[in-house]
Amino acid sequence: MNQLSLKNINKTYGNGVRAIEEVTLELSNGMFGLLGPNGAGKSSLMKTIVGLQRPDSGSITLNGIDIVTDTDFIKQQLGFLPQDFGVYPKISAYDLLNHLATLKGVVNKTARKEQVLALLDKVNLYQHRHKEVHTFSGGMRQRFGIAQALLGNPQVIIVDEPTAGLDPEERNRFNNLLSEIGEDMIIILSTHLVEDVKNLCPNMAVMHQGKVIAQGKPSHFINSL
Ligand code: ADP
Ligand code: ADP
């Protein structure tokens, strides 16, 4: 069982905006919902957890290891699916994932090939592996993003508004995939969709103006949201 602990995290940007204020959270395996309106500080918190920025103060540990200072450990143990992946190169899904695996440090060629094919299979894109990712539908791209986030076998993945712009069927398919993966690892789902958090996440937190204003099981307080 993995344990991710955030203690008294603070982050103020250069412009004086206090984006994260005294955030303390305990997460273990399964899906954790992060709810809050635009500007609440969700992205700032996620960037801080994945190591894209450092908190001004506070500690973050994964299974007892300080991930603020140990940036190599962070790179191995955390996967991130950003809201906007950007522009995809004109190479096949297989080649792209294989390349990203190399960047992630999976050096052994046979092991890498095995991992890439297993991940494409896991996200149901195996039969589409020869196609270029920019030709994929929105749902396929998001599933590809999950395969990318899972490279190197991380213990935590963070997904930012993953179902924005997906039709209901693709959204369901994507959410089922997340639930399945979440059995063995920590998944942080940042979203403004209360419904998704209610259906998918055993635990959640609500952020508002940089602070966690509520946390616990969705059933305890979601009716008031
Ligand atoms: P959310 O993801 O919940 O919409 P953000 O973390 O993006 O919230 O933003 C929290 C606050 O921090 C907002 O007021 C936003 O304008 C500000 N902010 C976010 N990123 C930066 C930045 N790089 N520099 C300055 N202010 C920022
Ligand atoms: P090498 O990398 O030595 O050229 P590989 O057999 O690993 O030889 O792959 C050659 C190319 O064939 C890859 O770059 C890739 O485009 C494609 N390829 C190989 N195996 C697969 C596979 N299982 N699924 C999809 N494409 C593959």
From TrEMBL:
Superkingdom of source: Bacteria
Keywords tagged on the record: ATP-binding, Nucleotide-binding, Transport
GO MF entries: ATP binding; ATP hydrolysis activity
Keyword Transport: yes
Domain ABC transporter: from-to ranges: 4-225
Claim: Transport is one of the keywords in the record: yes
Family, as annotated: Belongs to the ABC transporter superfamily.
Protein name stated in the entry: ABC transporter ATP-binding protein
Residues of the full protein shown: 1 to 225 of 294
